Amino acid sequence: MEEFICEPPFVVRYGEFFRDSSGRNTSRCLHNERECELPLVDLGGLSSDDERERQTCVAAMAEASSAWGFFQVVNHGISRELLEEMRREQKSLFEMPFERKSSCCKLLNGSYRWGTPTATRASQLNWSEAFHIPLANICEGNEDPSNGDEEEFTSLREAMERFAGAISELAATIAGVLAGNLGHRGKLPAESCSKASCFLRLNRYPRCPFSQEAFGLVPHTDSDFITVLHQDQVGGLQLMKDSNWVAVRPNPDALIVNIGDLFQAWSNDVYKSVEHRVLACSEKERYSVAYFMCPSFDSVIGSCSEPSPYRKFTFGEYRRQVQEDVNATGQKIGLPRFLR
């Protein structure tokens, strides 16, 4: 294979995962799945004066959350200008030298990760890099005048703050609508989530010389209530549908919403947290921004009604169990651990 220059140094650290002792590829090809169009929901219906139109919008979200666990939204209230600004700032951030990314200003310090340090084989490896940033860090910024990085990252922080505010409001609206659809009138999932517990994750998927075998992001479900994703048009996102992997066709006008484990548990399995993954690409790098709607670690994840198939647990307990399983087995087990 011709020399492949890549930052971060994936080939140096993980290249051996993709070849046996004879130098032949050992992993199966991942690019044979069919492409699908996710259910598309026009959120303009939520503000309509026509009650039937509003109920049609709610029903479409609920149906997609049950049958797919994923849907797309348009007329979501986040301007194209803000989305494009966020993408520019994100791209500029990832273009920094590898050595510098892990030692950025206070806003980003400690949030950078790449690859999968615990991986022992290709199926456990994420061929991607990311900044996983608590919303509280974005809003607080870095006010240490001795840190020269602050001025350099001002435009990034300002774009992230506007983006986080808009996407948080969108996620809370969607969660409230879906919870209300189940007839629940008590405390809603969104009410236990705050800037201290929710995250933005800026993702970059570099070009990969093993793109026929590699994952940009390994198969998983999200350990939150709701995820809202803004992706570029490169593609690569796939989800499990009817026991088959299907590729999601990018839509430049839409954001993607998916149900997380906590919402599935809270809804008593009415809404589904669906396994999904991202494939690697040899021709183009891919960018996305994900918002994770999470509660505080001490928040108890109950249910919208009883009986529930799940015992009550805190988010902190859930996260600890997930990490223990990953460390012990190399993969997440998730909700089955919390069945009664």
TrEMBL record:
Residues 194-295 form the Fe2OG dioxygenase domain. GO terms for biological process: gibberellin metabolic process. Coiled coil: none annotated. Keywords: Dioxygenase, Iron, Metal-binding, Oxidoreductase. Its EC number is 1.14.11.13. Its cofactor is L-ascorbate. It is an enzyme of class 1 (oxidoreductase). GO terms for molecular function: gibberellin 2-beta-dioxygenase activity; metal ion binding. Gene3D superfamilies: B-lactam Antibiotic, Isopenicillin N Synthase, Chain. Pfam families: 2OG-FeII_Oxy (PF03171), DIOX_N (PF14226). It comes from the Eukaryota. InterPro entries: DIOX_N, IPNS-like_FE2OG_OXY, IPNS-like_sf, Iron_ascorbate_oxido_reductase, Oxoglu/Fe-dep_dioxygenase_dom. It catalyses: gibberellin A1 + 2-oxoglutarate + O2 = gibberellin A8 + succinate + CO2. Belongs to the iron/ascorbate-dependent oxidoreductase family. GA2OX subfamily. This is gibberellin 2beta-dioxygenase. It comes from Spirodela intermedia.
